[in-house]
Write a structure and sequence with these properties.
The structure holds 2 protein chains of 2 kinds. Chain A is of the alpha/beta class. Chain A has a 5-stranded parallel beta sheet with strand order 2-1-3-4-5, with helices on both faces. In chain A, helix 8 links the parallel strand 4 and strand 5. In chain A, helix 2 runs parallel beside helix 4. The relative contact order of chain A is 0.12. Chain B is an alpha/beta fold. In chain B, 44% of the residues lie in helices and 13% in strands. Chain B starts with a strand and ends in a 7-residue tail after the last helix. The chains are: A alpha/beta, B alpha/beta. Chains A and B meet through helix 4, helix 5 and helix 8 of A and helix 7 and helix 8 of B.
Chain lengths: 212, 354
């Protein structure tokens, strides 16, 4: 396989979560002639691995952000070349994230937002106890993913209410609906008509990337 | 081929063959062993776990002589509460609920709790809680504690004075995020000492810290420092440190308790820092994956908890309930799954209490 050495160095640097090492590996791969898209793809796959390592307690949030920072630097360096190859610049997919109205739990949703941002999504995190209409407004404003978290059996029903509001507004087919939170299951996601159920932040991110 | 009636992690009923159950047991224990770098269950343990899961009786129990202590968290709220999740909705006072748990439900210990079940909201009403504690202590015989979650999320914006670390991280303000976590942890420790010393002065036999580390590693350190201060102030208090998950989530990443980074600690390591802080009892936790089977979840949970009891120098009372300890995550956890998980924790993981 071409660029085996560069691919390994890119992967190792990204998983080491050290920005200077990531930049050096990107510079080296670029100088060796590795296509910009291939470099970013390797970094993206490695970023997914970083997310899994975070969830397994092997890496911590500052590491994840450092890796994302390194990836961001690579995007800045290689972005123009990628845009030239593609013929036009491709905007990042926008995601609205929030914990639904009535529910003040925050941390799981925040971790998920961080993982999505690290994976290259433009994240609009509305916080927690978010009024239902605010999700709909963000979708109207261009978000193509709508992530709703609920940590209580009493608030998970709000996810369905928001899906119904998206349908009423004629927006349901324009957005990928993601649901998660402790009491939410794949069965419940199927029942309310969500597109993605995330058992964890990294699973949600992986499934969202698959939808791009 | 014989199929056995069992459950998925979301409580759904499924039929599985012995081969399928054993495969999930092996995968579940392997996952825990890989994550925490601990031994997987032995072949004998896995066979015993299969026997428990495949038992033809709807309800199973431990063998005579193997009964363990039953201690309850969230106080009276699981009985009186009716907010659509796990409460029974039976309206009664806190005294009646405590006596009912002691005298009818066989609780070996019980606790007083505030409706918000968090340390911070107790501060302004501490005098009321002290009064209630005194009143109930005059009637109850079982050890009666006060219980609350450290819940350090309440110290972050918009509920508290410190910036939200996860938000700051997303803005790549990593040092600011860490500083915010550290300040909140110090505040939490002060509040634990404030609430803990007063409620124990009012006659509480001890304090139960529920879901330690729910807001990440700084929450864990704040709680441990609070426990340490409480232990120093109240040498005879009975302190139970219960956790939020099988791994301490690294939001800060490098915050330490007594020289030990707590991020990424698993139950067999968590118990050591709890002991060091002054806990009398440790409450290990393993969360349930709703997409996996009972066999996978229970094998995984038992593996974590067994490694913990193997090294613990204090009793381990494992957290068992909706979505933890292998028990399915559903509103009313099915009794077949609940009893199987409890039996496995006692007879394979060797816990001292539930």
């Amino acid at each position: 396989m071409a660029y085996d050495n560069e691919t390994k160095k890119l992967h190792d640097a990204l998983v080491s979560c050290k920005v200077p090492d990531i930049k050096a590996a990107v510079d080296e791969a670029h100088a060796a002639g590795m296509p910009a898209n291939d470099i970013i793809n390797v970094l993206g796959d490695s970023m997914s691995e970083v997310g899994v390592l975070f969830e397994r307690g092997k890496l911590f949030l500052p590491h994840v952000l450092a890796a994302a920072n390194g990836m961001k630097a690579a995007m800045e360096l290689l972005g123009p070349e990628m845009a030239a190859d593609a013929g036009e610049a491709k905007d990042a997919a926008a995601v609205v994230m929030g914990t639904v109205e009535g529910d003040v739990h925050d941390i799981g949703k925040s971790i998920c937002s961080t993982m999505l941002q690290c994976a290259g999504f433009e994240v609009h995190d509305l916080g927690r106890d978010v009024p239902k209409a605010n999700f709909v407004e963000e979708v109207k404003g261009g978000c193509t993913f709508c992530g709703m978290s609920a940590l209580m059996t009493t608030t998970m029903t709000v996810q369905k209410e928001i899906i119904d509001m998206l349908k009423d507004a004629g927006l349901r087919d324009k957005v990928c609906v993601m649901v998660g939170g402790a009491p939410v299951t794949q069965g419940y996601a199927d029942k309310i008509g969500a597109d993605i159920y995330g058992e964890s932040a990294s699973e949600t991110t992986r499934k969202a990337k698959d939808k791009l | 081929m014989t199929e056995y009636y069992t459950r998925m992690g979301d409580g759904k009923r499924v039929l599985m063959t012995k081969e399928a159950i054993m495969a999930d047991i092996q995968a579940g224990t392997a996952d825990a062993a890989d994550m925490a770098e601990i031994p997987a269950l032995t072949s004998a343990d896995m066979e015993k776990l299969f026997e428990i899961i495949s038992d033809k009786n709807r309800i199973v129990g431990v063998e005579p002589g193997k009964e363990v202590v039953l201690t309850y968290d969230i106080g009276q709220l699981d009985f009186t509460g009716d907010n659509g999740n796990s409460g029974n909705g039976v309206d009664m006072g806190r005294l009646e609920a405590a006596l009912l748990h002691e005298r009818a439900l066989g609780a070996d210990t019980f606790e007083l709790a505030h409706a918000d079940y968090s340390i911070k909201p107790v501060k302004p009403i501490i005098a009321n809680e002290m009064q209630t504690m005194e009143e109930i202590q005059a009637e109850i015989i079982a050890p009666y504690f006060y219980g609350a979650m450290p819940n350090m999320g309440l110290y972050y914006a918009p509920d508290g004075p410190y910036g939200n670390p996860a938000d700051l991280m997303r803005e790549f303000k990593i040092e600011e995020s860490m500083a915010s976590s550290e300040a909140a942890a110090e505040h939490l420790a002060r509040d634990i000492e404030f609430v803990g010393t007063r409620i124990i002065a009012a006659g509480a036999d001890g304090f139960n810290f529920d879901t330690t580390g729910s807001a990440g590693d700084a929450d864990c350190v704040g709680t441990l420092n609070g426990v340490k201060a409480l232990r120093e102030a109240c040498p005879d208090a009975y302190i139970n440190v219960g956790m939020a998950g099988e791994s301490v989530m690294g939001i800060h990443g490098s915050i330490e308790f007594e020289g030990q980074v707590v991020a990424g600690l698993y139950p067999h390591q968590q118990v050591k820092v709890a002991q060091k802080a002054g806990a009398n009892v440790f409450g290990p936790v393993c969360n349930t994956n709703t997409s996996k089977s009972l066999a996978w979840n229970l094998a995984r949970a038992v593996t974590f908890i067994k490694a913990c009891t193997d090294v613990a120098e204090i009793p381990c009372h494992v957290n068992m309930g909706m979505g933890v300890g292998g028990i399915p995550m559903c509103e009313t956890a099915p009794i077949d799954a609940v009893t199987r998980c409890n039996k496995a924790m006692v007879e394979i993981a060797n816990v001292d209490g539930i």
